[in-house]
Design brief:
Chains A, B: Belongs to the group II decarboxylase family. Chains A, B: It comes from Kwoniella pini CBS 10737. The structure is a homodimer. Chain A has 3 domains: about 80 residues, dopa decarboxylase, N-terminal domain, CATH 1.20.1340; about 270 residues, 3-Layer(aba) Sandwich (Aspartate Aminotransferase, domain 2), CATH 3.40.640; about 120 residues, Aspartate Aminotransferase, domain 1. Chain A has 16 helices and 11 strands. In chain A, the strands form 2 sheets. Chain A has a 7-stranded mixed sheet, with helices on both faces. The first copy, chain A, has a 4-stranded antiparallel sheet with strand order 8-9-11-10. Chain A is globular and about 80 Å long. In chain A, about 60% of the residues are buried.
C-alpha cells in the first residue's frame, strides 16, 4: 500500500464521512469545514506547524462562566475553527519534528466516535465484554507483531498486556508491581510462609522495615517518567551517569557501581528502568549486561524496559537485533511501547506487557462488593481495573484494531520504513554540511545535531561552553519561528555536557520534501548565528 | 430546553452528520448504520441493556494475529456491528441502572473526532496552547457552576483545577500532594529552614523517618479508590466503621477514635478521604466535623472530598445545603467530581480542584531539558503535566466545552432534575410495595433496597442472614436477565451487615417509563423468590 496515497484517501474519506446529506442540518458541514480545511491547510503549508498565539490568547477571548442557556451547536463548532485551531500546535503537520510524533489517523477518528457511542468506564469484563476481550486480542496482536516472547502474550495465561494512557502510566504501574514483588521476596527471606492458597501476605512489619530502603535505577538519559515514578512512590531514583563512548547507554558496570554503593549502605535495589530509544538521543541501554547483573546479583530487582518511542520498530524484523529484542525477551519483567507516537494510533495508546500478570493483580486488586460480578468471581475473565492504577478506562483497543487491520502488518512496516528512510537521507545531508555535526549515531528516525563550524576556514576548535551558547542562540532563533518546530536537549555524560537540537521524523503526513525544507531553515538560521558569531569574534 | 426532544435531535443530527454524500465511498453509511441503528434499537428496547455473550465470545471469533495486508475499511466497520456491538454492555441504554450512569452525548462524539483530528499529548502549554487554556477556562466554568469557593478557581492564581481521567486519578494525585505536604510540614517541625526561594526541601532523613508512619483514613463506605491509593503509596488505609443511625456517614467521633489510636502508636494522619455521595448508598460524610478535627487537632492532614458521582448536583443551588457545599468550601483541600458520570460528558472527564496548586507542582514537577519551553520557564503558563501523575494527556476540555455550551446551565440543571424526579417517583412506588423496603434514605438518583416481606400476611420478622440469602437469590435472578442491569452491594455498619440492591437513575436517555419497567421486573423476580421461599418454609 502506498502510504502517501493513503493519506490523501484518508482525507477524502473523512470529508465524505462527515458531509451532511441534509442542508437543513449543517452541523455536518461545519465538522467537514473544520477537519478537511484543516488537513488541506496542513498539507499545503498554509497553517504553519506552531501556533502564533501568546499566553492567555484563548482565556482572554472566552466568557468567564458557562452560558445560562444552551447555544446553537453550529455556533460552537464555528468557534472551534475561530478560537481553538489558531491555538493548536500542529502535531499532524508534515513539518512537525519536535519531541516524537503523535500520529493520528482516519481510522482512529472513526474509532473515537464509535467508542463514544458505546461509552462506558470499562473497569470489569461485565462493564462491556467486547471492550475487555478486544483489548486482550489486539494487545496480543501487537505482542506478536513486535516479536515479544510468548511469556508476554495473554494467551500464555501467565503474562499478558494492557493498554495504558501513557508510558508514564506503564512505568508507574511497573513500579508498584515491582515494589510489592520485592516486599513479598523480603517477606519470604524473613520467614513468612505462604497462605493456604499459596499466597505471600506482606506483614506490616516487613513493609515498615524495608519500604523506605528500596531504590529505583535508570540513567541520566532515562525519561523523566522514572524520576516522577520515584516521586510518586516516595522513593529515591538514581540517575546513573553514562558515557559518550557507550553512546549514552546505561551499562552494567556503571549501574553496578551505584547499586553496590547503595547496598553497602543497607539499601535494596528493586526496580531498574532500561530504555530502548531514549528521548534525547535514541540510545539503547545494555539490557543483557543489566539483565545478567539482576540474575546473578540482585534477584529482588524488577526490570522494566521502556521503549515508548522506538518499540514499535520491533515490527521490522531486520531491526530487532540492533534494538536488542532478544535481550528484552530474555531479561525484562515488563515492557512498554506507545502506539500513539510513531505507531499510527491516536493518543492515547500505550502498550504495557508483563511476563507475570500476577505481579499486577497481587498489587492492584482491591475489589469491593459493588465491583464484584459472577464472571470475575469465577476467575474466567480479565478485569483490567486490576492491571492498572485507576478504576475506569476508555475503550482504546478499538483504535488499535482499526489501525492494525486497515494498514495490515505490511502497511504498518512501510510507514515505519518511510520515516527511517527520511532520517537516513537527512543524515547524509547533515554529514555534508560544513556548519553542523551529528553528535550521536542517528537512531531510527531521530537525529541529534548541533551547530559546530568544524570545517570553517578559521579552523578553530570551539569548546563545549562556547558551542552550547551558540546552539542555545540557534534554538532560540528557531523557536521564534512558527514554520519549524524542533526540540532542544542537554546531553549529560561523564565526558561533557552538550546542548544539542533534536529532529524527530516519522510523522504520518511527512514527505521528504518537508524534511528538506526544515533542514533548509536550520541551515539558514545557523548561517545567521555564525555570521553574528564571526562578527563578534572580529571585534574581540 | 426539552431534554427528551434533545435526545431525538441528537440522534437525527448524528445520522446526518455521518451520512456520506458520495455513494462510492460508503464508509459513512457504515458508521451511520452502526450508530443510528444502535441508538434507535436502544430507545425501542430491541437491544437489551446487558450483553448476552459468554466469556471468550469475541476472542474465539477473532484471528490470533494482525492481518498481513491492509483490509478494506468497510469490512472493519461491518465487524464493529457484527462482533463488537453484541458484546457491549449498554451504558447508554435507557434501562441502564447499574453502578452510576456513564452518560455520553452527541456533543462529545463530535468533540472526540475533533480532538483526534488535532491529536497531541498536551503535556506543556506549547504542546498546544488551546488545549491548556481551554481546560483552564472550562474547569473554572465548572467550579463556578458548582458553587465552589474562589480558592478553587484557577483565576485566583493560587488554586485551580484540572481534568483527570477518573476519580481514582484525582484521589491518587491528592494523595501524592498530601504526602509531600505532610513531609514538608514535618521538615519544618524538625528545624529545616526554607531555601532562598522560600521553598522547603524535604531532607532524605525526614523522608526515611516519617514516610512509613503516614496513614490514610476514610470509612468502610469510601470508594475502593482510597484503598487502592493506599496500596499505590505503600501506606495503610483505615476504613473507619459507620453507623446506620448516621446514614452510613463518616463522623468526626468515629474518625477521631481511630486516629487517636494511631497517634498513640506513633503514627501520623496525613490524608482523609471524605465522600459526598458514596457508591453504595449515596451517604454524605460529616465534613464539618472532620474539617474541625483537622483544624484543631491534626493540622498536617489533607482533606480530599470525593464527590465523583454526586458532585455535579451542586449545579442545583437548592441542593447545595444538603450536599454540604459550604463545608466542602470551608474545609476541603481538594475536591473531585466526574462529569463523565451523571454530568453528560463522555468518559473520561473527572474534575479535580485544589485550593493551593503548589501542593501539586511541588510534588509533581520533574522537568528535564527536553520538556522545557520559554513560556514555561517564564512561569506565565500552566503546564498541566505538573498537575497530574502522567506526562501525556488527552484534549478532554473540548468535550466539556461542547456540553456546557450546548446544554447551558439551565439544560444541565434540567437533566439533573429529571433524574432526581425519576428517583422520587420510584421511591413512592417502592414505599407502597409490600415486598420491598428502602434501606437508607434515597440520595439524589440512587435508591438502595432489599426484598423484605415485612408486611406479608405471615407477619414474620426475618433476620439479616435470612434476608441476605434471599436478596442474593434475587440479585442472581436479576443478573441472569439481559433486560435489566442493577448492582448489588454489602452494607457494612456497626449495627449489621445487609446485602442490598442498588438502582441508580440519571441516564440521559432514560424516561420514567423505563424506570417503571425496571421496577416491574424487580417485583416480578422478587415475587418468584418469595413463592419459592414460602414453599421452602412450608416444607420445613
Amino acid at each position: 500500500m502506498d502510504i502517501e496515497h493513503w493519506s490523501v484517501l484518508i482525507l477524502v474519506n473523512l470529508c465524505n464521512l462527515l458531509a451532511s446529506l441534509n442542508d437543513d442540518v449543517d452541523i455536518g458541514y461545519a465538522a467537514v469545514d473544520s477537519i478537511c480545511d484543516y488537513y488541506t491547510n496542513l498539507q499545503n503549508g498554509t497553517i504553519p506547524v506552531k501556533a502564533k498565539v501568546q499566553p492567555g490568547y484563548l482565556i482572554d477571548q472566552l466568557p468567564t462562566s458557562a452560558p445560562e442557556n444552551g447555544q446553537d451547536f453550529n455556533e460552537i463548532q464555528k468557534d472551534f475553527n475561530k478560537l481553538i485551531l489558531p491555538g493548536i500546535t500542529h502535531w499532524q503537520s508534515p513539518s512537525f519534528f519536535a519531541y516524537f510524533p503523535s500520529n493520528s489517523t482516519f481510522e482512529c477518528m472513526i474509532a473515537d466516535i464509535l467508542s463514544s457511542s458505546v461509552a462506558n468506564p470499562g473497569f470489569n469484563w461485565i462493564c462491556s465484554p467486547a471492550c475487555t476481550e478486544l483489548e486482550q486480542v489486539v494487545v496480543e496482536w501487537t505482542a506478536k507483531l513486535l516479536g515479544l516472547d510468548k511469556m508476554f502474550w495473554g494467551s500464555s495465561g501467565i503474562g499478558g498486556g494492557v493498554i495504558m494512557g501513557s508510558a508514564s502510566d506503564s512505568a508507574f504501574t511497573a513500579g508498584i508491581a515491582a515494589r510489592e514483588k520485592a516486599l513479598r521476596y523480603l517477606s519470604v527471606e524473613n520467614g513468612v510462609k505462604p497462605s493456604d492458597y499459596g499466597e505471600i501476605e506482606i506483614p506490616e512489619s516487613i513493609r515498615n522495615e524495608y519500604s523506605q530502603k528500596l531504590v529505583i535505577y535508570g540513567s541520566t538519559q532515562t525519561h523523566s517518567l522514572a524520576a516522577k515514578t520515584a516521586v510518586m512512590l516516595g522513593l529515591p531514583f538514581r540517575a546513573v551517569p553514562v558515557s559518550i563512548e557507550d553512546n549514552y547507554s546505561l551499562t552494567g558496570q556503571n549501574l553496578k557501581e551505584i547499586i553496590d554503593k547503595d547496598i553497602s549502605n543497607g539499601l535494596i535495589p528493586f526496580l531498574i528502568y532500561a530504555t530502548v530509544g531514549t528521548t534525547s538521543t535514541g540510545a539503547i541501554d545494555k539490557i543483557e549486561e543489566i539483565g545478567n547483573l539482576i540474575k546473578k546479583k540482585y534477584p529482588k530487582t524488577f526490570l522494566h524496559v521502556d521503549a515508548a518511542w522506538a518499540g514499535v520498530a520491533y515490527a521490522l524484523p531486520n531491526y530487532r537485533k540492533n534494538l536488542k529484542l532478544n535481550e528484552v525477551n530474555e531479561f525484562a519483567n515488563s515492557f512498554c511501547t506507545n502506539f500513539h507516537k510513531w505507531g499510527l494510533t491516536t493518543f492515547d495508546c500505550s502498550i504495557f506487557c508483563i511476563k507475570d500478570r500476577k505481579d499486577l493483580t497481587k498489587a492492584l486488586d482491591v475489589t469491593p462488593s459493588y465491583l464484584r460480578s459472577k464472571e470475575s468471581d469465577q476467575g474466567i475473565v480479565i478485569d483490567y481495573r486490576n492491571w492498572q492504577p485507576a478504576l475506569g478506562r476508555r475503550f482504546r483497543s478499538i483504535k488499535l484494531w482499526f489501525v492494525l487491520r486497515s494498514f495490515g502488518i505490511k502497511g504498518f512496516q512501510e510507514h515505519l520504513l518511510r520515516g527511517i528512510d527520511h532520517c537516513q537521507q537527512l543524515e547524509k545531508i547533515i554529514k555534508e554540511s560544513s556548519n553542523f555535526e551529528i553528535v550521536t549515531p542517528p537512531s531510527l528516525t531521530l537525529i541529534v545535531f548541533r551547530l559546530n563550524p568544524i570545517s570553517s576556514k578559521e579552523d578553530i576548535q570551539l569548546d563545549d561552553d562556547e558551542l552550547n551558547l551558540m546552539n542555545q542562540d540557534l534554538f532560540k532563533a528557531l523557536d521564534l519561528r512558527c514554520d519549524i518546530f524542533l526540540t532542544q536537549t542537554m546531553l549529560h555524560s561523564k565526558e561533557r555536557n552538550m546542548y544539542v537540537i533534536r529532529i524527530a521524523m516519522g510523522g504520518v503526513h511527512t514527505k521528504f520534501s518537508d524534511v528538506e525544507e526544515a533542514w533548509r531553515i536550520v541551515e539558514e538560521e545557523g548561517q545567521k548565528i555564525l555570521v553574528k558569531w564571526k562578527a563578534q569574534r572580529a571585534i574581540e
